[in-house]
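--- STAGE predict ---
source: upstream dedup step, 1 unique chain passed
mode: sequence only
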Amino acid sequence: MLVARPGVDKPTDWVAVNACLVPVAALDGQEIVTAEGLATAGGPGEPPLLHPVQEEMAVRGGSQCGYCTPGFVCSMAAEYYRPDRCAHAGTAGDAEHGPNGFDLHALSGNLCRCTGYRPIRDAAFAVGQPADEDPLARRREQAPPAPVPTDYVRDGAAFVRKDTLAETLRLLRERPDAVVVAGSTDWGVEVNIRSRRADCVVAVDRLPELRELRVESGHVEIGAALTLTEIERRLDGRVPLLAELFPQFASRLVRNSATLGGNLGTGSPIGDSPPVLLALEASLVLADADGEREVPLAQYFTGYRQSVRRPGELIRAVRIPLPLSPVTAFHKIAKRRFDDISSVAVAFALDLEDGIVRKARIGLGGVAATPVRALTTEAALEGRPWTPETAEAASAVLATEGTPMTDHRASAGYRSAMLGQSLLKLYAQTTEAVPS
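--- STAGE serialize ---
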């Protein structure tokens, strides 16, 4: 479905989200459009007029059994209305980007077993630009609905959204057992697949205090409730390591709802953002009813899905210190190129001066009970020349970092081998830019 959200280039963006993950109470006071709502009413006695996206899907055979069609149509409509898509129209295009500026990755997360995807791609690449009289295009010029406080109770269970962070923190002090949700991309799966329920769910996704992004002289501060898509578009490449992470983080549908606060708050050892943020030496601003404290991310995780975060405390923001290291890379090893959980994730941030590694920060995911820094490998690199010999020696060290395990995604031996290969890959990627 499409949700009207605060825009980056216009007052409102039409954002596609997974309806199956969003608690219905989270949409209180919001404006949504389903696949059915895209069509416009016809004249008296006439059928509705299909939306251009619906029309292209129909005439090009993009809809067969129809089971997946609503998801594809809404995702396609969100991309159809993306303001900066027009800036890329008229280019030659490639296998993943059409000459109309359409980014096929906007459709990722939707599955079809009938069409083989080619007709759907053809439909996506055939849509034009929204007409001047298009009501949903005009709607982008007005602000989206403001968040409203919500206190929904059913069968003894409550869904609560407060107006302010202070009110939320007071509630969490009273209800430390509450489940805190933002995009609900993790909790929604628990509810749908594992039938988990909570007596109290507290939504923080629309709190203004958690939705700020500031670039200051000493750091970048990213609100914990900004979605990954919002962060990506607002930063616009100013943190290259994050820019490399985002396209590999789940699907666009998930990134439209998922947040850094949620990815870190779950404490998962296979989340994709912790290795990157560890390499960036990020810290977290934790808030409770008594105030705030700043904790380095390297000291945040204490065990499997455990952290230093206290009952009643939540993540308000992520801080990334400036200046940034000039040499960075994020390597995600997974069975599929996109939209998959990583077997191993490695993030690098290096300072090179006159061919010497002056500083190295390496974050790892999927090789221990928590995301970890590769401290031994960092020490093996710092102060040494960035040469094949150094890379070979440090890669052997990196292969021994962590405590990788064997599971259905990869064996322990494979994970260790990928760690070592990742550093060799980094060297190969950077040598052309490094002074000899």
